[in-house]
Amino acid sequence: MSDEIKNIKVTIDNITIDVAPGTTILNAARQIGGDVTPPAMCYYSKLEGSGGKCRTCLVEVAAGSAADPRPMPKLVASCRTTVMDGMVVKNMTSEKVPDARAGVVEFLLLNHPLDCPICDQAGECHLQDLGYDHGKEGTRYQFARRTFKKEDIGPYIQLHMTRCILCYRCTYVADQLTNKRVHGIVDRGDHAAISTYISKAIENDFSGNMIDVCPVGALTDKTFRFKNRVWFTKPVDAHRNCTTPGCCGKATLWLRGDEVFRVTARKDEWGEVQSYDGKPGWICNTCRFETKKTESWKIEGVTTISRHSVIGANKYKTLEMPNETVKRVMKGVEPKLLMDIHSISNVNNPDIHLSDIKGPAHSGDFKK
Amino acid sequence: MQALTNKAKQVSRKPMSFMEKMYLPAIFKGMMITFMHIFKKKPTINYPEKKRPFSPVFRGMQILNRDEEGRENCTACGLCAVACPAEAITMEAAERQTGEENLYKEEKYAAKYEINMLRCIFCGLCEEACPKDAIYLSETFTPADYQRKQFIYGKNDLLIPHPKENPEAYKKALGNRANKEMVN
Fold first, then answer.
1. Structural domains in chain A, sorted by start
2. Interface with A, mutate which of B75, B97, B108 (most A CBs under 10 A)
3. Does B78 contact chain A (CB < 8 Å)?
4. B107 touches chain A (CB under 8 A)
């Protein structure tokens, strides 16, 4: 069958590629990879029906197709526009696109609180990256941002509605991964908000994947909340034999010393959940929230982090501890320390295990 | 070998004269120079009694700032720690509970905040990285001490005095620079 499908040619930023008919411009650009790929805040290739909401993936179509080479009058959302034979697309080579995208980012940030210092997503936030990429880390907006009543949606997931950009990814996760969706978008327009029906807790086995798909810090891991900044934890790839049907058991552990602070699904280069044998590697809530012991996991190696990311800063890129020369040379005699930092320092106390605390730490947790 | 610069001087190998062999004239010459310095202006000062004016960009010991109501500005965002080239700063964050609003400005705060002053190089990058106006390098030296363990500064050592409970100490801690800025 596949031989019969005629591939079509599309040119993106002067790079020509053959793709299958029905491919979107965004996916064609992802096949080329690199800087040619438009950013996407709402489109998620593993979630059916996602995309078309945030408009960050706008591209210019300089020639519609070989048959009709007229340019498209407006910028189009590349996640929703399928390629035509002979189509010429301009992304970074276009004059209009960076400007339009900067405008879109500014609109996304209108109601987004600039509370990155508090937000647990900071450091791996797509909106943060996008804002800084387009020089929109500040704001011109002078009015009160929309606020919401705080809502508790269960012991695992922390909802920060003010940070939501309404990408709908989490509702698709609930629809496509779980049998019953208990949350959704209520109200409309400026009042639209992610909510559960009458503060119902989200208790499905795969609900934790909402955290991974959320491009901003609207849905974050409550068991990791305020425990540490992302860039101070060390990501390692690990797997375990998970008995939950549908769970791939392959995850990224975010370690601090030997403590597992957070478990997430593994991410690919587009920030999406990695696929295994064509299936997205979602992980279940047991793996994500309940298995926070290093013994339960088989660690494969250090996760490769893009060198532009702050997450890779100040860390050994291997799992092996550095060799202590003194002990080896002195035939087993430990080096005499002038000061043992743990005897004075209150931070990183070996007796306080932050990973054992269910939610965020409070003032009482440190008084022991 | 060709000399790289013209600063090299040829060493004289000729034998010493009688006057040089006695050494005494040279000693007296040296003593004379020492003696002359008694009448010269002293370049040093008696430090704790007298103090030199600081440069306007002097970077001294860190302080953790509070806002006008005395709430701690720091939200434990970790930017100072990641910016610190000496890795002197460590912290642990906690969530603010109801009833603690008068203590901490934001919903997250630094439950523990430590600067290892043995490591700190007073570069001021923490001050530059801070998005919350929470950390400043003040106009005071880090006091000297006899033991290493005294140099692990916790929040008690770093926090600025409470502006309402102890306004005088707060004003003093703000230092001259802050007062000047207020006038302007």
1. 8-105 (3.10.20.740), 114-139+150-222 (3.30.70.20), 229-359+364-368 (no CATH)
2. B108
3. yes
4. yes
Angle between helices A96-108 and A126-133 (to 10 degrees): 130
Query: What token pair was written down for B42?
Result: 């002293």
Instruction: Tell me the pLDDT band of A190, cut-offs 50, 70 and 90.
Output: confident
Report the candidate in A209, A167, A197, A154 with the shortest Cα–Cα distance to residue A358. Answer: A154
Task: Please report the pLDDT score of residue A197 as a whole number.
Answer: 64
Q: Tell me the average pLDDT across A327-349.
A: 86
Mutate to test the interface with B, among A222, A314, A363 (most CBs of B within 10 A): A363
Cβ of A116 and B77 within 8 Å? yes
Confidence of residue A213 (pLDDT cuts 50, 70, 90): very high
As given in the structure block, the two tokens for residue A364 are 């009482």
The first and second tokens of residue A275, run together, are 């696929």
**B residues 31-70 lying closer than 8 A (beta carbon) to A:** none
Three-class SS state of A36: helix
Q: CATH number of B62-183: 3.30.70.3270, 2.40.10.340, 2.30.30.60, 3.40.50.360?
A: 3.30.70.3270
Verify whether the Cβ–Cβ distance B76 to A116 is below 8 Å.
no
User: How high is the ipTM of this complex?
Assistant: 0.84
Task: Answer whether A210's CB lies under 8 Å from A180's CB.
Answer: no
Helices (H), A254-347: 285, 325-329, 341-344
* Identity of the residue in A225, A346, A365 whose CB atom sits nearest the CB atom of B154: A346
Check residue B184 and give its pLDDT: 44
| DSSP result, B92-148 | EEEEPPTT-TTTBSSSEEEEEEEEETTT-----HHHHH-SSS-EEE-SSPPPP-S-G
pLDDT tens, position by position, B87-136: 999 999 999 998 899 999 999 999 999 999 999 999 999 999 999 999 99
Q: Is A339 on the interface with B (CB under 8 A)?
A: yes
Which comes out higher in pLDDT, residue A318 or B178?
A318
CA distance B13 to chain A (A): 49
